[in-house]
Amino acid sequence: MTTSYVLERQQELRDNKKLMREAERQAIAKMEEEQALRKAASDARIKAKLERIEKGESAPVSVAVAAPAVEVEAKPKKASKKKQAKVEKDAVEEREEPKDDQLEHQEAEE
Q1: How many CB atoms lie within 10 A of CB 58?
Q2: Where is average pLDDT lowest: 41-45, 74-78, 82-86?
Q3: Three-state secondary structure of 43-94
Q4: What is the mean pLDDT of residues 43-58?
Q5: What is the rounded end-to-end Cα distance, in angstroms, of the chain?
Q6: How far are the Cα atoms of 2, 43, 102, 104 from residue 108, in angstroms, in the given order?
Q7: Mean pLDDT value of segment 93-101
Q8: Cβ density class 69-108: b for 16+ within 10 Å, e for less
Q9: 17-22, Cβ contacts within 8 angstroms, sequence gap of 24 or more
Q10: Which of the residue ranges 30-39, 51-60, 70-79 has the most confident prediction, judged by mean pLDDT?
Q11: Looking at residue 7, what DSSP letter applies?
Q12: Res. 92: pLDDT tops 60
């Protein structure tokens, strides 16, 4: 005998699986529709090309224009706030005054 929460969980899993299958079906249908549109466009281009060939027309002239190369100056990267905070923290730690025993030791050496 199973408890109610187990049965509820199983039903949730079934429902989720149904939703996932429906989403997959929609994605597949969308992909097939896009493929059909691409195929139709390709067929139209091929048909137009074959008609041009039959008429004896030359292929359309395509002119390629090259864009001028633009040099981009490299900007120095700014350190992130986290890194800046760590650097500042390290700098503060380096400037700390020596502890009392260190002061006594230094005075004794002098």
Answers
A1: 7
A2: 74-78
A3: HHHHHHHHHHHHHCCCCCCCCCCCCCCCCCCCCCCCCCHHHHHHHHHHHHHH
A4: 91
A5: 87
A6: 82, 96, 10, 6
A7: 58
A8: eeeeeeeeeeeeeeeeeeeeeeeeeeeeeeeeeeeeeeee
A9: none
A10: 30-39
A11: H
A12: no
- Percent with pLDDT over 70 in the chain: 53
Residue the block writes with tokens 């187990």? 6
Residue with tokens 């004794």: 108
Hey, what are 108's tokens?
């004794």
Place of tokens 């039903």: 11
CA dihedral 62, 63, 64, 67 (to 10 degrees): -150
